[in-house]
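User: I've been trying to design a sequence by hand for this structure and keep getting stuck. Would you show me what you'd pick, starting by listing the structure so we're on the same page?

Assistant: Good idea, let's start from the same input. This is the structure you sent:
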């Protein structure tokens, strides 16, 4: 007789469900008692956000940093310490030693910060909208003439720079306009159209505008031509200062000087600042930035 055996399976244990988080409710009656329905939700004041009707959409721009004051102690400034050879327009005369001292002082002075001279040195013609939009779209003050710098520019009357050249000297036509209809004036070198961030070719003329200018001659140029060139430059300075000044800025006043002796005497006493002697031979003792160093740099940058 067969026997049937039944194995009773142990009862399954049902896992305890996790406690249910209290459901969120849109009822705000509990807020009256200071309670928060869910502790993970921060309580914010229902008050309105502050609003000012005339508040600007963007914060105001920072005020422009004023340029440092131009140096007042200078070999050539004030000019009243030197004899005046013409009252109108004003022209002064200096000795060779004064010219050399001014060259050394100019070469050793601290250069101004780039933000004070650029983009003015790049050339900002008022009709060149592309150039203006790129450099001064956000700050009109960048168009201002730098007032923190006083340099020197040396000009040889007659303009022949193949001989009797003091280091760094320019010809009159490199800075003066030949258009007699506008009187004596500096060249208008700012590009009227196109776009360029270099414009090396205009910077000698631009720097002459913010410099004291010394005019000299050699034996091939008369004393009369020397004084005529100096007076033209002096009148050009006055014209430029009037046209460039504005209500926002007062430009420094620069002056014109003539060298008291011809180049032949000057080169004997100061050969260290002569680029090309009276025979047309290069001295080679001092690099002439305008004819050599600057030309080499322009060639390198344009390769």
């Amino acid at each position: 007789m067969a026997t049937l055996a039944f194995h009773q399976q142990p009862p399954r244990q049902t896992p305890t469900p996790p406690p249910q988080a209290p459901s969120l409710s849109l009822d705000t009656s509990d807020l009256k008692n200071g309670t928060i329905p869910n502790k993970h939700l921060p309580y914010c004041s229902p008050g309105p956000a502050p609003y000012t009707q005339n508040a600007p959409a963007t914060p105001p721009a920072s005020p422009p940093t004023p340029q440092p004051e131009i140096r007042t102690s200078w070999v050539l400034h004030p000019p009243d310490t030197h004899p005046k050879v013409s009252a109108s327009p004003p022209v002064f005369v200096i000795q060779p030693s004064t010219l050399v001292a001014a060259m050394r002082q100019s070469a050793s002075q601290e250069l101004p910060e780039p933000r004070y001279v650029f983009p003015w040195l790049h050339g900002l013609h008022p009709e060149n909208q592309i150039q203006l939009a790129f450099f001064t779209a956000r700050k009109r003050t960048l168009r201002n003439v730098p007032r923190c710098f006083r340099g020197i520019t040396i000009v040889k009357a007659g303009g022949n720079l193949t001989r009797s050249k003091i280091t760094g000297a320019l010809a009159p036509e490199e800075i003066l306009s030949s258009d007699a209809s506008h009187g004596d004036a500096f060249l208008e070198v700012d590009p009227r159209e196109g776009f360029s961030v270099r414009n090396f070719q205009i910077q000698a003329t631009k720097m002459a505008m913010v410099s004291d200018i010394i005019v000299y001659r050699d034996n091939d140029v008369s004393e009369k031509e020397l004084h005529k060139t100096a007076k033209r430059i002096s009148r050009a300075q006055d014209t430029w200062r009037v046209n460039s000044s504005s209500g926002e800025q007062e430009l420094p006043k620069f002056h014109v000087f003539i060298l008291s002796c011809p180049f032949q005497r000057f080169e004997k006493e100061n050969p260290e600042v002569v680029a090309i002697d009276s025979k047309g031979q290069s001295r080679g003792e001092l690099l002439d930035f305008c004819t050599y160093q600057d030309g080499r740099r322009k060639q390198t940058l344009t390769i």
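That's my pick for every position. To get oriented when you compare it with your attempt: The helical segments are 96-108, 114-117, 129-136, 203-209, 223-244, 263-269, 289-301. The two ends are 115 Å apart (CA to CA).
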